[in-house]
Structures are given as C-alpha cells and as structure tokens.
Input
Amino acid sequence: MKKMEENSRSKMRDSTTIHENSSSILPESTPSRSPRSTEMTASISLGNLSGKTSKASSSLISPQNGDSQWHKNSPSKIVSIKNWSISTYKCTKQLMYEKFGKSSRTMDTELENQIEGLRDTQKKYANILRLVRTMTSHFYHVVQTQHLMGEAFSDLAQKSPELQEEFLYNSETQRNLMKNGEVLLSALHFFISSVNTLCNKTIEDTLLTVRQYETARIEYDAYRTDLELLVQASSSETNSERLEKAQTNFERHKMDFEKLRADVVVKLKFLDENRVKVMHKQLLLFHNAISAYFSGNQQALEATLKQFNVKVRPPNSALPSWLEQ
Amino acid sequence: MKKMEENSRSKMRDSTTIHENSSSILPESTPSRSPRSTEMTASISLGNLSGKTSKASSSLISPQNGDSQWHKNSPSKIVSIKNWSISTYKCTKQLMYEKFGKSSRTMDTELENQIEGLRDTQKKYANILRLVRTMTSHFYHVVQTQHLMGEAFSDLAQKSPELQEEFLYNSETQRNLMKNGEVLLSALHFFISSVNTLCNKTIEDTLLTVRQYETARIEYDAYRTDLELLVQASSSETNSERLEKAQTNFERHKMDFEKLRADVVVKLKFLDENRVKVMHKQLLLFHNAISAYFSGNQQALEATLKQFNVKVRPPNSALPSWLEQ
Output
C-alpha cells in the first residue's frame, strides 16, 4: 500500500510537469496541499482508474517482444503514457477540488441513492448469508450427533431389558430426526448457494459497472471544468486551438459517461427485479423448510423440497464444501 | 509412570529380602520372570493396593512432627512397614501365580459378571452423556444463531418494503424457535446433570467398594494359599507356631473379604434399583422434551419441563458451565 502510494505520487510529479508545459490556465493560487491529503486523493484516483492503469502498462510491456518494434512504436507509446498521465492528474485534481468544495460535480441524487441502497442491501444479505452458514454448520453437527445417538440408544436397548422400551423410543426419535435433518440440510444448502450467487456474483457484477460509471463521472467532470476555464479565459489563436481540443475531449468523456450511466440504470432495474424474485423464492423456501422440519412435518418438508426442485443430498456425506465457501 | 514402576520394583526387592528370612516354604523353582512381566505384575499390585500404600506412607510421615517421638515409635513403625511389605509381596506373588495358572483363586462368577456388567453400563452411559453434551453444545449455537437471524430478518423487513412479508415471517419463525430452543436446552441441561451424577458419582462410588473388594479377594487368596502350603508341609514345632499365625491371618483376611463381598452385593442391588429409576425418568424426559420441541409443540414442551420439575434457564445467558463439565 505504502509502495502503491509512493508510486502514484511519483506519477503525479511527472504529470504535473507535462501539464505545466501544456497549459497555463490553472488558477494561480493552487491550494496548498499537505502530503497527507495528496496521498489520500492519489490513492482514491488510482483505485478508480485501475482499468486505465492496466491498459497503459500492457501497452508498455507488449513491445518488448522485439527491440526494433519497441523503437518503432516508442513515440506512440510516449504519447499514450502522456495522455494517461494527464488524465490521472486531471482526475486527481478534480477529486481533490470536489473534496475542498472548489469544483462542481455532476450530481444524480436519485441514481446515487439507488447505488447506496444496493451497497447496503449487499452488506445486509451477506450478513444473512453468514448467519445461515453458521447455523447450518452447527445444525450439521447436531444431525451427525443424532445419528450416533440413534445407534447408541439402539445398542443399549438390546443390552438393557430393564430399560428396553425407554432406549427404543429414544433411538427411533433420534433416527427420524436425523433423516429429516438431512432433508433440511439440503434445503439450507440450496438457500446458501442461491443467496451466495445473488450476493457475490449478480450484485457484484452490477457494482463493477457502478465503479466504472463513478470513474467516468470524475473524468467527465474534470474535462468539463477544463473546458469551462478555457471558455472564461481571454481568446487568442493558441487558445482557440486549445478550446477546440478541450471541446473534443469533453464530448468524448461526456459520451462515455452517459453510456455508462445508461448501463447502470438498466442494470440496476434488472438487478432489482431479479433480486426480489430470487429472494422471494429463497425466503419462502427457507421459511417453509424450517417450519416443516421444526413442526415434525416430514411430508411438508419433502413437498417443499420438491416444490423448489431441491435435490436431497445423500445422507452421511462428508462435511459439505459449501459450509466452507 | 516409569518412576512409579521403578519405585514399586525397589519395594519388591525389599520385601523379597524380608520374606526370604522369615519363610522357606516357597517352591524352589520360582518361575523365572522377565523384567517386563515383573513390571506388569508390580504395577497391577500397586494399583490394587493403593489404599494400603497410602496408609503405610501416612504412618511413616506422621512421626516426623517430633524427632523424639520418631525414635520412640520407630520399632512399631518398622513392624508396620515390614507387615505392609509382606502383604504387598504376598499379593503380588498371588496375582502373578494366578496369571500363570500356578495358584487357585476364589471365584464368584455371578458377582463377577454383575461387576463386569456394571463397568460396561458405566462405559455405555458415559458415551451417551458425551453424545448428549456434544449435541447440546451444537444445539446451543444453533439457538444463538437463530436469535441473531431473528434480528437480522426483522431489520431487513423494516428496510425492504418489497420483501417485507417474507422477511417478517422468517423473523417470527426464528424468534419462536429461539424461545423454544432455550426451553429444550434447560431440559438437556437437566438430563446431562442427572446422568452425570449417576455415571460419575453414584456408579463410581459402588465401583470404589468393588475395587476394595477385589483387593481383599487377592489378600484373602494369598493368605489362604500360605495356609494350605503350611498344612501340606511336614509338622514340626516351628511349623505349628507358623501354622497358628497363618491361621489367624487367614481368618482375619477371610472376614475382611466376606464383609466387603457383602457390602458389594448390597451396593450393587441398591445401585441397580436406583439406576433403573433415574434412567427411566431421564430417558422419558429426554424423549418427551425432544419430541415436543421437534414437533413444534410448545405447550407439550413446557408441560414436560413442569412435570419433571425442570427450571428454565434465563434466555441469552452465557455458554453454560455444564457444557464444559
């Protein structure tokens, strides 16, 4: 982490140099930054731009296959590094300015609330998943012990004529509980597996797009601020050229941002429908299976598993792998 | 252990010396003993005679309170040590001869079968106790997790209008299960505590008398063999004196043996009645509580606890100490 931060700081120094040569429209009173706040902002920017970073580094590595190719391609590589550095610098600056309230940011309260809600939902479902896993693990051991108790009571029933009846009915009860327990374990397994997919795959996939969208928003705002500053500056020939370039950059990042925003909106909508459908089914299964088991209703328990197409695990199989997922 | 064996071997060497001076009726062809078999017999003898050993050592230690008293009492102490050593030697020899079929032993097949049966019963009840403890421990954690799940589902019901109903009924089910679980835990606690007392106190107390009886049997047989050998030997004045002494010893050990035998018979009878009574009650409680809980019959579960005078533990108390007993 320390190394990463130092790395990003050195990148920032490079990009600062490039920028100072290519632009002079920055407000002269750049806010004095403490080393601490720089580190923080830089590491945030690096996290959000990780996609970009890996792109840049892969184009750096690939030409090393042949030395001649490296020399031939090097000017375009240098341009690529330069562009990436400028972008990183712009985004870091934008984040920092937003943090200190010196720059405006594009707000979409409704969408941001939805995203916040999704993150909260993921956290809460992960907690349910953890609890059901814990409960299932302990219940698995209860069932294993019931199996052993059924055998121990049966053995004692054979060898204790004076208490035969008492040992016999206890043995039968434990054996029945063990059988029903295996069926309930299959239902719990199904619940865990489905909620795990929802929580750690389906929701996670949408949150990946959300993170890309958040990065695109920062880039868009950075290029928008650039353009606005240029428009305010006095016009000259050099400036008009720059203005044109800034306008192009702004349009490109606006398009990227809007595309990702649309993606997020669509994904959130579909995810929400899917999530409600999956959770409705799983919560019903969980409730019906638990209720049937703990009211000793074997028929209802088996009917529930059939209704939800849950296969019953073979009894006495070793500690199932899904307990350790 | 190693030290104990060496200790007992050195005691045996002492007692051999004493015996060679005081008696010459041993068969000349004392079976050659490997160090291994000596060790085995010695350690058996030591185990059986532990009561005697501690007596002897306490009479050795007590006079050290005052030096003068030590010197005054020393002749009687030496006699006491001598007697103890002779007894230890006789018993060790008796055990060894029995092992190699060179000496007869007093058999009481019916009583010995009863004792063997009691030891087996203790082992089997201890196994049941261990299993119920394991089951209770896991079940305790299931109940704790149900408590947390009840809260987590309730929290989600408040915050998810789209799945409110599903979260609500799951929350209610878990809370009910948690409450009933606490009641079942009290019943399991009562079973564990009662069977633990039966197994590790009541039965153990009788088995202590059994071990004293077994030691007395060996001593009795040792003095009986001595007397028989003396009777067979040619008569002389020295011999008649010895015969009288052997007769007295034999009578004394016979009385001890018969008294302990009677104790064991009485204790076994009362223990058996007590054991059947306790186990009948506990097995009924265990079955009724488990059946009521796992058929969701809260009224029956509470009625069972009332019937057996079991107090319900306060809910959410820390991991009860009886799980670690």
About this structure: The interface with chain B takes residues 120-121, 124, 127-128, 131-132, 134-135, 138-139, 141-142, 145-146, 148-149, 152-153, 155-156, 159-160, 162-163, 166-167, 169-170, 173-174, 177, 276, 279-280, 283-284, 286-287, 290-291, 293-296 of chain A (CB under 8 Å). Chain A is about 80% helix and 0% strand. Residues 203 and 271 of chain A are 7 Å apart (CA to CA).
